[in-house]
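dude i think i finally got it to work??
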Amino acid sequence: MNVARKQLNAIKILHAKLLDTLKRLQNDLANNYNQDIERLKLEQESLKAQVETEIAKLKKQKIQIQTGNDINKCITSFVDDVNKEDTLTVKKITNDKCSDNIDVKKNNQTLKTEKKQKKNNPAVPAKNTITTPVDFGKLDLRVAKILSASKHPNADALYVETIDVGEEKPRNVVSGLVKFVPLEAMSNRMVVLLCNLKPSKIRGVLSEAMVMCASSPENVEILEPPPGSVPGDYINVDGYTRSPDKVLKVFEEIAQDLKTDENLQATYKGIPWTVADKGAVVTKSLKNVKIK
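look at this
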């Protein structure tokens, strides 16, 4: 009887320590979570193991005394209380953020949701980030004039043109038009130039823009600005604000909607390209074909 009561007292002392640990865990988690959580976990597990060991000893002894039933009932009730406290402790430890007087379950669910969103969206832009649509406005298209043209020194299918686009210096442009436009028809003609492509060398010669053309599998025609246009005039499409990228990286995406129509006009999503107060950009004969 005395042995059993001593062991029960020992269990109660351990239980009191466990509750004290839990209180310290609640206080420490608020300010020192990252540093102390692992230590408190280990301490809690150690105390729990000691409680379970003492309970096991009591069960092995099988003490048969008059008050034995009452002690067993006390032990059973105590074990239930310990299990409840353990469950609460585990829930509090597994919660990533906790503070006093906050519902642990609700806080834990919120943190899990935030982590899941971050995992599924690793590159979510800042709320204040302003993005512009990918449309015709990204293109820096201008009226230009080919001042001179010659055969590419390293490629039979390419021309090298010097083109005035209304800037201080003319641009150097390489075009694959030898099969479709005679050399004598290249010089001194008005064209539409895409000016914000990244400059690159083509067969050893720098190209700083692209001459826009209507293109079918059988033929290619250079687009023609409206009469009265001058180098540097902007090409516009109604409904789209001109805001060209410094260096265009999305041309292929936009180009899917660049086509000529039944009236031989260059269009974007069916809307004509125009020069303000001067008219529409057209092609000579190619209807309903891609522009590139």
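The radius of gyration is 40 Å.
im so relieved honestly
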